[in-house]
Amino acid sequence: MLPSRASVVVAGGGPAGYMAAIAAAEAGATGLLILEATPEPLHKVRISGGGRCNVTHACWDPRALVGHYPRGGQALRGPFSRFATGDTVAWFAEHGLELVEEADGRLFPRSNRSSSVVDTLRRAARMAGVLSVEGQALQAAETLEGGGFRLRLRGGGQLHADRLVLATGSHPSGLRIAEALGHGRVPPVPSLFTLALEPHPLASLAGVVADPVVLELEPPSAAVVAVEGRRRGERHRQRGPLLITHWGFSGPATLRLSAFAARDLRQWGYRAQLRIDWTGGLDPAELEARFRAVRLEQARRQLGTARPWASLGRRLWLHLLEACEVDGGQRWADLGRNQQRDLMTALRDSRYAIKGRGPFGEEFVTAGGIPLGEVNLATMESRRQEGLFLAGEILDVDGVTGGFNFQHCWSSGWLAGQALAGS
Ligand SMILES: Cc1cc2nc3c(=O)[nH]c(=O)nc-3n(C[C@H](O)[C@H](O)[C@H](O)COP(=O)(O)OP(=O)(O)OC[C@H]3O[C@@H](n4cnc5c(N)ncnc54)[C@H](O)[C@@H]3O)c2cc1C
Question: Residue 109: CB within 6 Å of ligand 1?
């Protein structure tokens, strides 16, 4: 049953909305109502992390944490200094859910099931006295003289709220309502995607992981540099594991690159030049020293069977030999000066033409939303409209893959909740 008035209406039953409502109620606020458009709140939590929900990441220092947010960045220092990853772990523990860290720093529920996270949030909301109404979408919000909002719902219902939290994620309805209340919007673009190659010279290596590599992304041509005003030579750079797929490149380094370069890639029509340093960033002198050492120590062995270093994938090495027209049956002792130069160039500076986006990774987020400058980041209250609060992905904040997107939801939701209880 939908009440005709509520002290606080939270539009959007996602992680940010739930955290805002629970935190407010637990800190003493009453009359909280979550309005969720679909029949299933917390849907993205349920499908996240391949059904396991990567709740947050073991990056405990707010100064380091902000480096994982292509949009948000340093502006999040304040919010994270009040509620960061350690607080998330403690919060879930206090609410009966233990989070477990994996080797790469991602934190998952001990059950390895996202339903545990959904159940924890729903139970906490119920116990704190938060009312949740599903299948009710907020369509419009008008301010009332003397404060508060008249809310119109899709399907004709209405109610009054003293304060309103917009936690509608990247859904256009929330952004439209915020705009009507005086907010601007940074246009949305996709983030966290893989990169497609055409032609794909490495197609036969699909499934190979190279770790670490250095990736550098540049515009497809100098003309684009001139149009979009980036300084010539300025590049997006990432270091980490790369997965070669049958369409191009995936893996953590690629996803991170796509996130930090999301806006540029959109502007370039998802065409770009990708430079791969398969050595992971060795300088030319170090690489030359390695070649010298293998030539001495493995002089009689064939190039195809002895790689310049052990962790360089065998299939990748054979591919590079072939691309440089060097016979894998040749002995290291017979490697010519020009052949060595070509191989070193291929290892440090292979170039590939990116011709589009590949499929999304496990996580998908949108860059863009309400500019952070329009929000008081201590309280998440709008600077444009008193009584309006904003939390989660509706803001122009997005993180790289690994639990950082949920972390921002927990942090911004918790801050909004504290402020709602205090005001
Ligand atoms: C497949 C997938 C996997 C992911 N995995 C991870 C992961 O493992 N770790 C991680 O950190 N991030 C992950 N993410 C990203 C993460 O899910 C989002 O960043 C996060 O859900 C954003 O939370 P939110 O509460 O801001 O918005 P949402 O989760 O989008 O919730 C918004 C809610 O508002 C509702 N709504 C929209 N408009 C209205 C309206 N007008 N009225 C009422 N209700 C409305 C929606 O139905 C929705 O339930 C994943 C995303 C996807 C798509």
Answer: no
